[in-house]
Specification:
Largest sheet of chain A: 7 strands, mixed
Shape of chain A: globular
Strand order of the largest sheet of chain A: 8-10-7-11-9-12-13
Oligomer: homodimer
Strand content of chain A: 25-35%
Radius of gyration of chain A: 20 Å
Number of helices of chain A: 10
């Protein structure tokens, strides 16, 4: 017997919100809309992202991982603005009312929500080709947000984590490359379970002049900062932190244009770099200094000499 | 040559927001997220809805109308909460990068946005089966929102506009019924261009004990109020305002369970009804008093006697 939309939402998504952990949620799931109170002297940061089966994730991806990633990529956008995650709404299109799928999906969703301390306050389910849209919101102290447009010549370019693991995971999944089992597992974990860098929000607020999250790949995402800030950049390939296999196989393409890293890329004024590095060392954060912002041009330096990146782009959904 | 996602957003959706008309928009389209400032002593009301081609609108629907309706149905949810529309974000999945479609789509979207005084602040486009997700937000004075759960026995049940035109329009489009051309045009206009009742927001705030917007049909939507308020209802069919053709053809099904009306259904305490009707008459608003809230039971009265509605539902996306 088919299950109604209302029953589905009640059963799998209407988890009670704890008033202590979410004091700003006035009214959650179950009405025409939800109601929120933004804390005083704070602004609201708003983002939206859709994941489509077969395009943003392989059709065979487990439902738990789909849900986890759908929320993670939105929270990553909030982190890039230095916004503390607060709440999200979900729109889920499903080919059929599949309770086993929904059970796993909601498990993965709430697992991610708990991990990122963000609350589901509303949603909509409908029948259609599998796609997940999440709109996530977070808070920043008034005017404390970080944009793509604040980079200045002389700023250092910083990146978190290690790049390329997710792209290597995807390549191993499609059979493009062969990995030994333990490495494959690790790479697939990076692909399916990206960890948005909410731990870096205080660091961004204190030091960053601009920031973006790495969804399309370092080369394309840094290009967005350069374009919005109207500056150039010089990046040292050897300084880019990469997934071990990338270095061993000199396969930097995965780290440069592979995408799906969900690490943060940000710029820091030269005079703040020493203090940042001291702080990063104290907090044991994995931040690397990979280059500098320049007046113009976009160059990658490696042992083969400089490469002009100004005409290249990362993954682009409508690109060739 | 394929057009990039970034170019598409720039070209068709990045309309400059006028600071005077949208003082709360701090940062609009073009970064990882947008930034808002909710006015003091106000709460934020948040809703999300997805429209899928072939399911929520016929595949042949013009792009202008698809966009218009996608925004209208979200604004209707805000109106039902008595929230003044403020901003929205869009996620658009398109099978291919079709500039003619996008031009028309953005025209229809901004036409609706201007009409409803709501601002596009961010979005995401990707390739996939045609679907449109909009997350819209509005403001209410602190605790001034209206829910589905405040109806009390003795309250009068009010509905705006005339019901059934959109459902009749859909039936004429699929060939289920034949309409004379002028009437068909009118019915299709109701189907493709629903007018969310933002004009009723002040009335709801002043008089309503509960409210919902009519998306699934009167019978099913009133059932939501009854369930959330834990009450019953007695509705007089003859008092329900309907599209002229519905009355002439005694085809009340279109008005009762047809859906897609996007009128408002709300309850008003008995002692406030006279004042409401005076106000409605002064403001020339089209509000009808169609029945009363009772302790329990759900009955429709017409010339054939009472019909028990307690087991019926309006259109349900996963229902049989």
């Amino acid at each position: 017997m088919p299950v109604s939309e209302f029953t589905l939402i009640e059963k799998y998504f209407n988890r009670q919100i704890n008033g202590d952990s979410a004091p700003s949620v006035i009214l959650g799931i179950g009405d025409d809309a939800a109601v929120l109170k933004v804390p005083q002297k704070h602004q609201l940061v708003v983002t939206i992202d859709t994941l489509i089966a077969g395009r943003h994730f392989p059709d065979s991806t487990p439902a738990r991982d789909i849900a986890y990633k759908a929320l993670a990529v939105n929270v990553s956008d909030l982190a890039a603005m230095a916004a503390t995650p607060a709440y999200f709404v979900l729109s889920l299109a499903l080919p059929e009312s599949d309770e086993a799928f929904l059970k796993q999906f909601s498990d993965g969703l709430f697992e991610a929500a708990d991990e990122f301390n963000i609350h589901l306050i509303g949603g909509d389910t409908c029948r259609g080709p599998l796609s997940i849209t999440i709109q996530a919101s977070g808070y920043v102290p008034d005017d404390g947000y970080i944009t793509r447009s604040g980079a200045k010549p002389g700023d250092h370019i910083m990146v978190s984590g290690k790049l390329g693991a997710a792209a290597v995971g995807l390549a191993s999944k499609t059979g493009e490359i062969e990995l030994e089992p333990a490495l494959k597992l690790q790479a697939l974990e990076s692909l399916n379970r990206p960890r948005p860098r909410i731990d870096l929000i205080p660091t961004l607020r204190e030091y960053a002049s601009s920031a973006i999250d790495l969804s399309d790949g370092l080369v394309g995402d840094l290009a967005h900062i350069l374009e919005k800030s109207q500056v150039g950049a010089r990046v040292q390939q050897d300084f880019i932190p990469v997934f071990e296999w990338v270095k061993q196989n000199n396969a930097y393409t995965y780290a440069l244009i592979g995408g799906d890293d969900y690490e943060l890329l940000f710029t820091v004024p030269e005079e703040r770099v020493t203090a940042l590095m001291q702080s990063v060392s104290n907090l044991k954060l994995d931040i690397s200094d990979i280059g500098v912002i320049t007046e113009q041009g976009y160059w990658l330096h490696n042992q083969g000499g400089p490469t002009d990146l100004s005409s290249k782009q990362g993954f682009d959904h409508f690109g060739s």
